[in-house]
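Hi W.,

Here's what went into the run:
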Amino acid sequence: MAIDLIDKMETMTGAKALMTAMEKEGVKQVFGIPGGANLPMYDEFARCNIRHILARHEQSAAHMADGFGRVSRKPGVCFATSGPGATNILTGLATAQADSSPMIAVTGQVPVAMIGRDAFQESDIIGMSNPVVKYAFQPRQANEVPEAVRKGFYIARTGRPGPVLIDIPKDVQQNEAEMEFPDEFKIQGYHPWADPDIVACERAIDMLLNSEKPIILAGGGTIISSAFAELQSIAETLMLPVVTTFKGKGAFPENHPLSLGPIGMHGHAEANKMMTEADCVLAIGTRFSDRSVGTFEAFEKRLKIIHMDVDPAEIGKNQTAQVAVVGDVKASLRIMIKLLLQRSIKKTEESTWIKHVKETKAYWKENLKIHPGEMGAAKILRKLREILPVESIITTEVGQHQMWASLFYDVIQPGTFFSSTGLGTMGWGFPASIGAKVARPDVPVVDIAGDGSFSMTENSLATAVLEDIPVIVFILNNFSLGMVAQWQRTFYDKRMIGVDQEHCPDYVKLAESYGAQGIRAQSMDELEKAIKTALSSDVATVIDIPIDPLEDVLPFVAPGTSLSDMVLPS
Amino acid sequence: MWAILSLLVENKPGILFKVTNLFRSRNFNIDSISVGVTENPDYSRMTITTYGDEKRVAQIVKQLDKMIDTVEVRHLDEHKTVYRELCLFMINLSNANDSMEINKIASAYGGKVHDVKKKSLMVELTATPEQIKAFEELVRPFGILDVARTGVAALQRSGS
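Here's what came out:
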């Protein structure tokens, strides 16, 4: 398998081989929690140059690694012990898988001879994790460890990225073996990238040119592939309006005249309207999730679809494409740009369509009704946008605040907005912001949070404080599980069950008890001061912003309906 | 549409689990499955038959192809493929002539008769699923006591 060996054979333990192989992959830190079955690998931290960042729950460790991976586009690494340590990372794996995030999870396992005997802290994590990982390894001999790590990192970061699990029995960590660290290797059944399809790109251009109302739908794949400049070039050359999915939010600068923002259940009114009116879509790196497109049948009905994706299995899964361009979207877009140059195509005159798009956008900028109070979600998030430097990184939790962020926080520098969009994991944003800050210590990192989600992983404050990772948690606090409450108000005749969190805990005191900074902001003045204080602080800050518990997220496309059924604020 | 899929997979523990788990988690159906090692012990061949419209079968093939452990996934054209299933039938004998009748039917389908007892006999049949079904209909009146089937094994004809 190993064609070329860069290092000489060396005798060492499996645990040492793990750390050595990870150093070779460029790993600088691991997020994790030690336990009985991973102590041998933990002992190696004493003898290597990898920093250990202690989490307070394995799920959070996984989200930290995920946040690091999304921002740095290199696999983030988390460690957990066997049994409950391993099962606690399952949500983290599923979150990373749903959002195609590169991640390596290394779990301890009971010794090989104990596997299958229901040993103490034994869990069949290989079996349990199967549907939520891109691949999983369980080396049964110490000398299999380096290759598992090498292949694991390769699989996690290439093609459509995803989480890889490496489950290492304790005796495999302890045993010594002659180790080879392969440089080159082959995985027969894995073809992460198809060659760019020039013919399909040509057809895509013709289809766009022959449509009256073409539009671009940029998905998360645009961000993963960092095809920002290419997307902007195509949009400007062909003068195409750009909508995004929620995961694609910020693939295109949201202050650009051609930007309409995200479509979907809580998409921008102008984005949903124009998506519904368009007759041809260039869909880039998206799986057409139900939350983005509403009912599949209604979406594809009057639309010609050009589908560009790295994953061939996405073509035709949720929507039927007339033109499929399989391959890395950045490479495909570059080919389109080249073809446009060769054919000297550059639109300079505004079509009736683009004029209509701009009018619609201007109309909704003026006329979308927002909460009338001083501390309405729109005003709060616009204030945050106004003060934060453009290069700041945003993560979000999951719920109303997340959708308000989508509606009212404009991403100006592409690739600075991250959220758990696929699995919708509450509690993701805060640990992910810690991982993001580790990847980019030079820029402010803000977790736009709600009180419900933040409660789920708030103990990561210990990590932020003790490991000196000064992130900002920005809580839109409606003292409830707000999105569920909104659905109960809307669909369940206002029977409010299990949604009231009351004033528990006090987030300022909570922050202070961890040694973080806690600030409550009850007016726009206080909010402005709080954000500025947080930005100039070298300790993690929680800003608690009480809001109206009855504020709904609008516009709203109810589940099982189409984008044209969008409900607007009245 | 009935479809025959042929998978060349790495011969490692856990692959059968991953393949069947994919069918379960993606809401696909397995009609039959057979697995065996190939001439090269590093690989196994899985033959899976399934139902679905064209789009669905294409999606199954793509999802299987995406699996890292699958080296090759093919949707076989049944007209260019030899496909057979081995089936064992235990059949009830109630009248004196039954044994002879069943023997006739079995030989018409190329079956072999085993384990002839006073009250039952066993027929071994290697045939296509359609032929097996037809045989089953013919012997049903005698009373089928038990059935065991291997699932389809298939190979594309050379040159096609």
